[in-house]
């Protein structure tokens, strides 16, 4: 990386932290805010399934330990919230289901997806899963319901799997390959999700992971960088070890080179064939509505946060109230920056289309930012389109990682009920909270 690139990376990282500080100044609501439809906009539906059997040490997603009765009651509330959204006039063409372990109770999930297909014009559903929930017989029941299934494998290396506590839970390299080869092909798109840049991971281990993933011929492969931040680094060091040199950029270049014969969906996802249905709902949909405990909605420049506590969530739904308990407002400039990030993360921006959708003048509104990015060689303009360079892809990947790290902090703050008590506002980026603190993930209903 040359001097200008290092400068661009450091400046962009600081600018992102500043944006998150401004944006994540969250107001706690006494009463949930009404979600209003704008008939000119298209929305995506996000549903959250907050349960896992056990927890992985690097994972900061919102989840509680699975309990069948609790989960059944949760799914009932979730379907009730979906019906309430329909009554407000919303419609969706695509849906993303995230967790937790989304397929932890297949029957309940199927019932929920069938309801969504009945109520809305949903054409495609993407769902996350883990290697213990890809039994072909069980997957058969999702034919015609789930279009894309992404399976978190993280690594095929037995040593790494042991370190991340997945070897006993999900199986060895050999077992993972057997499970995947039986599951690939049951549903239209299967994505194998890997993580790179584990402490002590070598170049050879990374290449082996990529080769195995490719040899299984899934329709997509996604390679996430390990999400580390100042707040999680101690916890990661405790469980995964410490590395004295960070290999993120070097490994990213290896990945890009390895998948040069694949279609690029965005900075970290690759497809055998061209398709638009990928892993990042935030990059493919600017506005989305989230249902379920801890789900986020981004509507009209506002981030709405649903109740995390399962009792609070069910109570709100039962009383036919809005399930959101907090909101953050973004200025016009922050919205432009956010959409710019998500689109450049996917590789390009058609300037006229961008300006029309956001009613802005991108080249004027982000003049300084675009100048810096052009000077460092991160982006280039050809006629009416901005493209990312190889370095630009890495830079936007790092910024997306920063953004997700910020969202992890929001989750960590909001699942800690005590922290929210008697507060009117909370500035998330100033809270000293560890997103990997498992104690705060135990549900005491
Ligand atoms: S990585 Fe997946 S299975 Fe592991 S704790 Fe996170 S959501 Fe659960």
Automatic annotation (TrEMBL):
Q: Name one GO biological process term.
A: porphyrin-containing compound biosynthetic process
GO CC, any one term: cytoplasm
Q: Which GO terms describe its molecular function?
A: 4 iron, 4 sulfur cluster binding; catalytic activity
CDD domains assigned: Radical_SAM
**Pfam families xrefs:** Radical_SAM
Q: What is this protein called?
A: Coproporphyrinogen III oxidase
Q: What organism does the record attribute this protein to? A: Campylobacter ornithocola
Q: What is the lineage of its organism?
A: Bacteria, Pseudomonadati, Campylobacterota, Epsilonproteobacteria, Campylobacterales
